[in-house]
Write a structure and sequence with these properties.
It is built from eight helices and eight strands; from the N terminus they run βαββαβαβββααβααα. The protein is an alpha+beta fold.
């Protein structure tokens, strides 16, 4: 599973100025000399403003910064993440048009169902050997159907949910914060959490002050 940052727009300062425009104000980076170069960082007042905006759920300034990821994950992970739609755009590979060799996710362990919750999983068990015959059989069925002239959009129906898919996922800083606030939690599905954690780490590098405020609700 992999989430690769393709592009981004804006910075912590973009968030600040989107908020300060209400008062016809504009902030600039503070800077200090570092190794003969100039390194920009936010002024203390601007850091406090970002924390205030996040704490009081003034989300619109965080909507002016955006990111684009290319993500590869099993179908069952993708179907959880695609539920997040507000502020996000999703374009996925389609096996209506693609009939290349599928790839499959095989976990090292299968987790046992938890006894004390309605959904989720608990301790792990080594049952991965059960999955291989299923993958082999469905893959052969898929290939046979294609050889018989069945169109890819119908042949794909026999492929299991552990087949890898990939998609471009673009959206605002605010939208990805909503995703990660839910999907990075310890009680979410482990596989989905791996994708969310990768997104979170990369966003934090680009928007350190905003991301801390949005995902940890730090005090102003």
């Amino acid at each position: 599973m992999k989430a690769i940052l393709i592009d981004h727009m804006g910075s912590d300062l973009s968030v600040v100025n989107a908020a300060r425009v209400s008062f016809a104000k504009v902030s600039e980076w503070d800077s200090i000399p570092e190794g003969g170069q100039v390194k920009g960082y936010l002024k203390i007042g601007d850091e406090k403003l970002i924390k205030f905006l996040a704490k009081h759920n003034h989300w619109s300034p965080f909507g002016h910064a955006s990111l684009q990821f290319h993500i590869k994950a099993p179908i069952f992970v993708a179907r959880q993440l695609v539920k997040h739609q507000v502020g996000l755009v999703w374009n996925e590979v389609s096996r209506r048009y693609v009939d290349t060799e599928p790839e499959f996710y095989t976990p090292k362990y299968f987790r046992k169902k938890a006894d004390n919750i309605k959904q989720g999983s608990d301790s792990e068990d080594t049952l991965s050997y059960i999955l291989k015959p299923v993958i082999d059989y469905t893959l052969q069925c898929y290939k046979n159907m294609l050889k018989m002239g069945v169109c890819p959009e119908q042949a794909r129906m026999v492929l299991p949910q552990n087949m890898y898919t990939e998609w471009y996922w673009s959206g605002s800083l605010a939208a990805f914060a909503r995703v990660c606030n839910l999907r990075c939690k310890e009680d979410t599905q482990w596989e989905t959490r791996q994708v969310a954690n990768q997104i979170s780490e990369q966003v934090h590098e680009l928007f350190p002050i905003s991301w801390e405020a949005l995902t940890h609700r730090v005090e102003e």
